[in-house]
Amino acid sequence: MKQKKSLNPIPLSLRDKKRYLVFQLDSEKSLGEKDVSFAVKKLFLKLFGELGVSKMNYQFILFNSKSSRGILKCRHTAVEDLKAGILLLKEVNAASVVPKTLKTSGTVKKAKSFV
């Protein structure tokens, strides 16, 4: 029995272009992925509001606690907003952090090579 394809997939030409931002958080304490994800989400909602966050279409991809590096995905038009937002992050779970943006990439494979 063959599986049915989805009825109306969105054509590639109509899909959003995406960018992946590699960032690093320097901190004295070890940071967990859930803590960083929650802090970023809270900060973005405070800065841009729900409408701005939905227009950015950002997604937290991963965070490596050993290297303190992570990846965020967003629309190609919102890269500068994402960079500005991540640089305003000052505290994660009561630990002060110093954020740095390292690389912007068009593919997740290339971005993961920096993490």
Topology:
Layout: E1 18-27, H1 33-56, E2 59-64, E3 69-75, H2 79-87, E4 91-92, E5 95-105, H3 108-112
Antiparallel strand pairs: 1-3, 1-5, 2-3, 4-5
> Biggest sheet: strands, sense, closure?
5 strands, antiparallel
Number of helical runs?
3
What's the CATH superfamily, by name? Ribonuclease P, Pop5 subunit
Helix content: 25-40%
Radius of gyration: 16 Å
Find the CATH topology: Alpha-Beta Plaits
The domain tally reads 1
Strand order of the largest sheet: 2-3-1-5-4
Shape: globular
Distance between the termini: 42 Å
Overview of the molecule:
The protein has helices at residues 33-56, 79-87, 108-112; strands at 18-27, 59-64, 69-75, 91-92, 95-105. It is an alpha+beta fold and 115 residues long. The chain has a single domain, classed as Ribonuclease P, Pop5 subunit (Alpha-Beta Plaits, 2-Layer Sandwich), CATH 3.30.70. Helix 1 packs antiparallel against helix 2 (79-87). The mean pLDDT is 93.
